[in-house]
Design goal:
Length: 366
Amino acid sequence: MPVRSDRLDSLDAFRGLTIAAMILVNNPGSWAHVYPPLRHAEWHGCTPTDLIFPFFLFIVGVAMTFSLGRRLEEGERRRVVGKVVRRALIIFALGLLLSAFPEFRLSELRVAGVLQRIAVVYLVASLLVLRLSRRALAWTTAGLLAGYWAALELIPVPGQGAGVLTPEGNLAAWVDGWLLPGRMYQGTWDPEGLASTVPAVATTLLGVFTGHWIRSRRERSEIAAGMFTAGWLAILAGLAWSIWFPLNKNLWTSSYVLFTAGAALEGLAFCYWLIDGLGYRAWARPAIVFGLNAIAVYVLSGLGTDLLIWIRVGMEDSALYGWIYRHLFVSWAGPLNGSLAFALAYLAFWWLAMAALYRRRIFIKV
């Protein structure tokens, strides 16, 4: 068998594709003109855009087995805990920076966010991996999914009752409103709230199990086949559960966890089969450019967007972001296609920036 390295090109490529998709959907020229697949589902349901965030958390779990597994084999358990906590704090702080930039109105600071959820999930999942056996992790994952479903279905919300899954009437929104009053993204609920972070941990743990499967001493063809099979089983299980507990990104429902983890397995299996199995790497190099600086490009692109919105230009004193969209893209592509062209151009700009770092072997780690 070929010698296995500490990095998988297929995982870096899949991470890069995920980050590229995240930047694309987060930066349309105008939110009034976006193709439906590039929008989140309004509430229940799942669009391609709703797959992106769970894909990244799943990838965090897969990568964890390589980073933590190697250090555990070297007997560094105590040192690893300190590094995990430090990294989680840095990622959380970067999330707060994105929320506060550029005006830093701390009285209005949103505590929850994408990077904040990644930080919390990474910390909790890492500590579980460091302390529990694989069997115990499996029971923990099942318990998180079943417990979250039972809580939302059986615990009554004051003034609403039990089993209410509307935006304002569900248990997760009530918990977040109690813990994060006045700091929620949607006013009465938050898509990255604290309560829905609990099942998000299960998403990462499913990635951990996938990482262990990839690191096993099986043939690469068997590993790929196992991921393809497990992916379809998870998708079907998620769809079946959604009959009673709908797919919902904002609530991060248990059915959504299974469905999106299954889709992530299919995507990673395809990359693994092509890149690490068959050796077709050339097509993946543009994605790997993003994948090796994933957190860096997410933060920098977010700061760039905020800066373009903050800078005012023209006689009408409009945001530079909107000015660029109207004058450089709408003029030749129209509102809808111009909005997509803006997003693609913004993505291309950051790819060129990351490609420059890649050529110099500069990889920004946290």
